[in-house]
Amino acid sequence: MNYILSVSDLSKSFGAVTVADEQNFGVTQGEALGIIGPNGAGKTSLFNLITGTLAPTSGTITYCGESITKQSAALRCKKGIARSFQVPQPFSGMTVFENALVAATQAANLRGQAAYDFCIKVLEQTELLAKANIVAGQLTLLDRKRLELTRALCTKPKLLLLDEIAGGLTESECVSLVDTIKAIHAEGVTIIWIEHVVHALLAVVDRLIVIDFGRIVANGNPQQTMNSDQVREIYLGIDADV
Ligand SMILES: Nc1ncnc2c1ncn2[C@@H]1O[C@H](COP(=O)(O)OP(=O)(O)OP(=O)(O)O)[C@@H](O)[C@H]1O
Ligand SMILES: [Mg+2]
Questions:
Q1: How far is the CA of 110 from the centre of ligand 2 (A)?
Q2: pTM above threshold 0.90
Q3: I want to staple 218 with a disulfide (CB 3.0 to 4.6 A). Which of 53, 114, 128, 210 is the partner?
Q4: Which ligand has its closest atom nearest to the C-alpha of 38?
Q5: pLDDT by residue (tens digit) across 103-129?
Q6: End-to-end CA distance of the chain
């Protein structure tokens, strides 16, 4: 299988709390993978492990054919792994454009006019161009989410990790964000998307993984997985054996 990313026997514990329990899965080039699971299941921790802000207790992470398990977060970012944060993390005192420029220059290694032009292109795509000169700290929630996406895209990612980017948005804001994510996916960017807003997720993803207490309990076709006994049991408390 031509995996852009694979994790093998990946585990992480914080004392008695296991956030990743012997996880094994791969993501193929160009795929859009969804991840769901209850609060505290370990979804964001998985992104922290993939991006390198968290070191695993055991296991390996392979990206584009090489082990990145021990590589720094900065190096992984330069190699094309980008993320949006569940709680937006902009440089609040800088403008939208300056936030984009940091990513384009520091991660995508663009300079001068090329960096400028690339940021404009991304800001057009994420529908933030009209707000390029607004200070990030003054943005609405939707625009802060769009800025998360902008900053990630300005690193020129091959693999884009989205952490609850639709959370807290109105229905129409959500529809507009889904259209943007679909367009990014159509350009060939591989996506892993953690989301509680399931209808938004199902509009985009090719496959769905369910995590519960750090364990992967389901991995397959999105609709079939949503209808599975495991998901019913986790979300509705209905015992799969009943
Ligand atoms: N650095 C840390 N130190 C100790 N415990 C942590 C740390 N990071 C996360 N945890 C704990 O690990 C568990 C999983 O957290 P994580 O943020 O990965 O969950 P999540 O699935 O993303 O949840 P949510 O849907 O609420 O965002 C939680 O119980 C959390 O409190
Ligand atoms: Mg989370």
A1: 31
A2: yes
A3: 210
A4: 1
A5: 999 999 999 999 999 999 999 999 999
A6: 37
